[in-house]
Amino acid sequence: MKEKIVKIISIFMVLTLMVCTFAACDGQKDKYEEDPNFVPQTTEPITEPGEEIPANMNPLTGQLDLSESAQGARPIAIMVENQPVARPQWGITSPDLIIEGLAEGGITRMMWVYADANKIPDKVGPVRSARHDFVELAAGMNAIYAHWGGSDGKTLGKYMAYQAFDKFDVDNIDGTKYENTYFFRDTTRNVSLEHRGYTTKSAIQKAIKNLGYSTKQTLTDWVPYKVAVEGGKIPWNDSETDSGPCSSIKVTYSSSYVYTFEYNAKDKLYYSHINNKQVTDGNNNAPLAFKNAIFLYVPVESMNTDKGHVDWKFDAKDIDNKGFYVVEGTGQRISWKFDEKTCSLKLYDFNNDPLTVHSGKVYIGIIPINNRDLTSITR
Hints:
- By secondary structure, the protein is an alpha+beta fold.
- The chain is 16% helix and 29% strand.
- It is built from 4 helices and 23 strands.
- Strand 2 and strand 3 form a beta hairpin.
């Protein structure tokens, strides 16, 4: 009799579980019908990285590849051109972090950031002139900034790159002062002089030493995001409305600078394409790919200069400070905050917790907020 009762109870439990399961599926089906963008929640187990941070953990990527001399050191930032004549850039696959945004006239410029100077290639560039928005971000990271010239507002009465260097006391290495010492001109490309400037790992290291710049990082919280230790997973919020699959994302800086980041499920990286052409490295022809791609929507305004310089209005009022983060075939909405005094940029998930990215290279694109509606996601 007991065996019969146990059997009946077991059958009842199985039937109950099946009913609950089908009910859950019906609930998701209804939400699909109500909202075509609804994404079912995943149940993949998540483990947080350990509390101990290895000494050789790269603070920008989480990878355990930091040389001993770079542990506790300041990052190196290099200003790199992105006009068509400058492509393919030498060493574009080497930085830990690439920050890109409009410079002037609808063209973008990049700041390549290295946590370890030893990872800088033997040829990096084309190195171009600084812009104040990049200088501010470099200041927020206490980076040593390499550039070849810069925007100057002395005659215009405007706050531009050279004024930003002075205001935030940014240690910098300027190609206009040190051509043929720490900066050089390539002779293999048939383009005008300004598109052929480059520097090298040894040149940057010599410049830092000879100019007397301290390499010790004095900031404790200088990275815009948190990063998972290599090999660990991170917490992921599977909100129905704020995250979902992302096999590719297209973003627009201007009509001439339209990027698509295509996800490769085999290596779990996003490959960068500009105007439908894959971005490659001028040193080795390797394709440019990122583990993490982050896009921040920021007001961008003209500075009314003859060259069309722009200003990223991080301090604009009455904006929602939103962005989007993609990793491993999924994406989620994020937000950002910028401290005008310290130039500190911080990223947050949609729970307003500090954004934690996966271990690997990071791309941050500063997208004009007016072009936000041009962003398209393929799920």
